[in-house]
Amino acid sequence: MVTNYNPAEIEEKWQQKWAEDDSFRSEIDHDKTKYYVLEMFPYPSGKLHMGHMRVYSIGDVLARFLRMRGFNVIHPMGWDAFGLPAENAAIDHRVNPAIWTEQNIEHMKKQQNRLGVSYDWSREVNTSAPDYYRWSQWLFLLMYKRGLAYKKQASVNWCETCETVLANEQVEKGLCWRCSSVVETRDLEQWFLRITEYAERLLYDLDKLEDWPERVKTMQHNWIGRSEGAEIAFKVKEIPEEEVRTFTTRPDTLFGVTSMVLAPEHPLVKKLVEGTEREKDVMDFVARVRKESEIERTADEAPKIGLFTGRHVVNPINGEEIPVLVGNYVLMGYGTGAVMGVPAHDQRDFEFAKKHKLPIRIVIQPEGEELDEHTITEAYTGEGVMVNSGSFNGLNNTEGMKKVTEYLKEKGLGDFRVTFRLRDWLISRQRYWGAPIPIVYCDKCGTVPVPETDLPVKLPHDVELSGNRVPGLAHYEEFVKATCPVCGEPARRETDTMDTFICSSWYFFRYASPHSQIAPFEKDDVDYWMPVDQYIGGIEHAVLHLLYARFFTKVLFDAGMTRAEEPFSRLLAQGMVYKDGAKMSKSKGNVVTPDEIVERYGADTGRLFILFAAPPEKDLDWNDQGVEGSHRFLRRVWRLVVECREQFATGKGNADHGEKEAELERVLHATIRKVTHDIEKRFNFNTAISAIMELVNAIYNYRLSVEEVKQNNSLLKETLVKTILLLAPFAPHLAEGAWNLLGYKESVHKQSWPEFDTVKLVVDEVEIVVQINGKVRGRMVVPVDFNEDDLAEAARENERISELIEGREVVKIIAVKGRLVNIVVR
RNA sequence: GCCGAAGUGGCGGAAUUGGCAGACGCACACGACUCAAAAUCGUGCGCCCUCCGGGCAUGUGGGUUCAACUCCCACCUUCGGCACCA
């Protein structure tokens, strides 16, 4: 006889069966509603950690649940396989990155399968496979053709440890996102994607993403950083053909400008001081500032230093001469790299002016106050009336912003302008293990894109592994040598590879069309499957991957390749997994691996615990004893199935349907309702599981409180069967095993999700709480259809209550049907 | 500084629409079974008191309401993001 719950045995058995039956393959079916469930694909580092287990568990519950609900579910998995760790491993182990990656994928895939996750492996993608990166390159060319990929000389982020440049999004507080080294600045010619062209849409379409967490949207909102203002041209007094353009959000303060400060990188700086006595001082200062890392330059305690250039600009609104300085706090990458200083109305300008003894002039007066430029101790940034502003005097400053800009526009000296904090996406990487940028340089024809028919531009296969790093592509002569596609003359290949975030910006499209040989993906496929209905992943990608993927999707939309304007309809940002209040890490010695858990308790226990311990979006504290509890529950379920099966076989029992049966039935239907709602509407798997636990407890209670020969076996069986169905998404192996044990041949995962019957939820009597002045003073059981008046009367008649209100004046009685009665007395 | 999220027993968490605070689970205690242990089952379990019964409790202080974890105001703390952004 089958007895104990043996996860090792049943999990392997059913995993094999599912694989043999190809159970989770999905095909286009226009008669069914599709549902795209996607977890962020992993970097194949070699082993799964608890964060992976969590994200896959969440995704798998949804996928399995939605299949049972009748959706045509697509649930794919793949590998974000390019990236630096493969190169480091290559050197450490003297093994080709491709082979290392391949081995890791193989291993991790086994681990995923051991978790029982229901993936359609026929759609698996590997971004490092030529068959995939060919299309990453194709998409680069698409960007190039659409004017969205370009090369420029720029001052860029450089990580010395990774020996490559980084995009702005990949620098966190001045440190490299991957290795936390200090990021330096270098001047290099690099490839960029014009994401700023999409800034406005990336920002406004956030509003369409109703089912995204607010915090992620806020982060993107801040990152894009839109501000409205004016761009204003100031002529250089000493060199009339030159002008300084400045961006300001406060054109209403233009009459208060007393300095013009340029970024050290500003192209005009050199010209302004060239051949003057100040040239050396200024250029030394510029050189010194530019050597500083972003950390040093933006540190809180970094003093604001400015150096006079000896030159002046002319304020276009009143012809005043204003000194031009170079300042270490002005950033070339924002606005125009030049700031007009209005000390009276900008705190930073105020401090700067105090330090450099620049004049302060008040041009906005707050209502009912009289600010004095000699006595103010801080800038006034609020609203007010314009003063000292010529013909604009007396205007409200908000009005003034518009009026001043309009005036300048008429004169051709300025215009309205919107500026973004977001900068173009630097995608060149000076590394081997990435998709080569498909560009050829020809002496005659210049920069030439590789024709689509010549793709992929393959990575050199025989990697040089003798040194202390994998050499970049420039090292491989055979790779560099090329023929110009235009003129046929010898040419050189671009030797940088693309940022791996390019590869992960479109993989969800490829899943829909994984084997296409004619395009990155085919329209029929993506028109059916896209967008992703539910995306699940870590919050750390709030501005990186999630912003890039949105950008790519919009470009693909504009190119007519998809109808999806946004890639991910719903986003679930899952919390992190902690243990003992700290992130799991080797150094803290608090790591628990999915392997250990599967080994010890089985995958079902691990999945159940991870979903039960906290709602998915919250951080989760791993608790070994909690895992025991989940395991105990599954054993309890298994034992129940085994015992009931034996009981059913005896043929004993009867068909009575008394109070206890009605109660069991009611609990069953209430549970179906709750579990369905919790998964579908709230993503609260923890409460769904607790409801199933209560149902199991109710079955045990029924069996305990009714003699075996008197138990209603048909009801018991129905309840048990439905319990197994409810549990199937959470503990798929146990459910399949139990289902089989109960005599069913077809997979539990092919069954329909149970429906609840509202009729079965109806009760005859309910317990009503009776409060006096808001405090619970008694309870009474009344017929369920008692209305407010009946309730009030019943409460008054209640023995205990009537004693308590005896001799007191009843001011008011509030009765809520089915819930409570509150008697207000004096 | 700005923006966002959150604060509930010893612990993880629940309370879905303003209506019994603490579901479910963990830990703990006691009991049953056992020679014993494990497993399993049962009972109890916010804090306090004079323990029939009552008082106090959802970060703090106010407010609205018959009724507040839930709504409003102010504040405190924690976490996350952005930050010399002109």
Quick take:
By secondary structure, this protein is α+β, with helices and mostly antiparallel strands. Helices cover 38% and strands 20% of the residues. It is built from 27 helices and 34 strands.
Describe the structure.
- Helix 18 packs across helix 19 (603-612), helix 19 crosses helix 20 and helix 23 (713-727) runs antiparallel to helix 24 (732-741).
- The chain starts with 6 loop residues before the first helix and ends with a strand.
- It has 826 residues and is an alpha+beta fold.
- Among the domains are: 226-420, Isoleucyl-tRNA Synthetase, domain 2; 620-761, Orthogonal Bundle (Isoleucyl-tRNA Synthetase, Domain 1); 765-825, Ubiquitin-like (UB roll) (Roll), CATH 3.10.20.590.
- 38% of the residues lie in helices and 20% in strands.
- It binds one RNA strand of 86 nucleotides through helix 7, strand 11, strand 15, helix 11 and helix 20.
Write the layout of secondary structure elements.
Blueprint: H1 7-21, E1 34-39, H2 50-68, E2 72-74, E3 78-79, H3 84-93, H4 97-114, E4 125-126, H5 130-145, E5 149-159, E6 164-166, E7 171-172, E8 175-176, E9 183-193, H6 199-204, H7 214-224, E10 226-236, E11 243-248, E12 259-262, H8 268-273, H9 279-291, H10 294-298, E13 306-314, E14 321-327, E15 338-341, H11 347-356, E16 364-365, E17 385-386, H12 397-411, E18 414-420, E19 425-426, E20 428-429, E21 439-442, E22 446-449, H13 477-480, E23 481-483, E24 490-493, E25 497-498, H14 500-503, H15 507-510, H16 523-529, E26 532-538, H17 545-558, E27 568-574, E28 577-579, E29 582-583, H18 594-601, H19 603-612, E30 620-622, H20 624-650, H21 659-682, H22 685-705, H23 713-727, H24 732-741, H25 758-761, E31 765-772, E32 775-783, H26 788-797, H27 799-805, E33 810-816, E34 820-825
Parallel strand pairs: 1-2, 1-26, 3-4, 12-14, 26-27, 28-30, 31-34
Antiparallel strand pairs: 5-6, 5-9, 7-8, 9-19, 10-11, 10-13, 10-18, 12-15, 13-14, 16-17, 20-25, 21-22, 21-24, 23-24, 28-29, 31-32, 33-34
Helix pairs in contact: 1-24, 2-19, 3-4, 18-19, 19-20, 20-23, 21-22, 21-23, 22-23, 23-24
This protein binds one RNA strand of 86 nucleotides through helix 7, strand 11, strand 15, helix 11 and helix 20.
